[in-house]
Amino acid sequence: MNTYFTSLRMLAGCISFLFIQPIFSQSYFQTIVSRPHNISARDAAQAKFTFQKIKPHKMEKVNLVQKLALFSEYWSPKIVGELNGQHVKLVKFKGAFVWHKHDHEDELFFVVKGSFNMEYRDRTVTVGENEFLIVPKGVEHRPVAEEEVSVMLFEPATTLNTGDTENELTKYELDRL
Questions:
Q1: Under a CB-based contact definition with an 8 Å cutoff, are residues 31 and 53 in contact?
Q2: Do residues 77 and 90 touch, judged by C-beta distance below 8 A?
Q3: The dihedral of CA 65, 69, 156, 143: what is its sign?
Q4: Cα 44 to Cα 48: distance, rounded to the nearest angstrom
């Protein structure tokens, strides 16, 4: 019976260390992925990356209108949250983006304001306000917006905005709002 209680105490200690301590500890930190610029985006998505410290998540609401008011540039995603290895990003775009695909990641585009066309090689899908579209990994696509559109993206933290295409629109480091 004594072994049972000892095991139970050890289990409780592990649970406390893993789940309770991180919530209250000031020294607790999370790591995020940072890709060195001397390797390709494709290699970086499959490799172990360098890590940097960030503050623990706060359990606070996010106001999309307020966050969108903080920037005006197009095709430059901003991280506004993260969960389970996924980034929640806000982006504004106008005009046509580059044709690309993501070999290892699905992308979710949720339209906050406006509308845009998602072009595929064989068809076009119009996505309007309060609608979303999931682009499966490996599918070549290109977002196009005639007028400014505000979009929320859900995608793995390893996702490079231009996928398998690297050019002047590629963002290696994203701002956090």
A1: yes
A2: yes
A3: positive
A4: 7
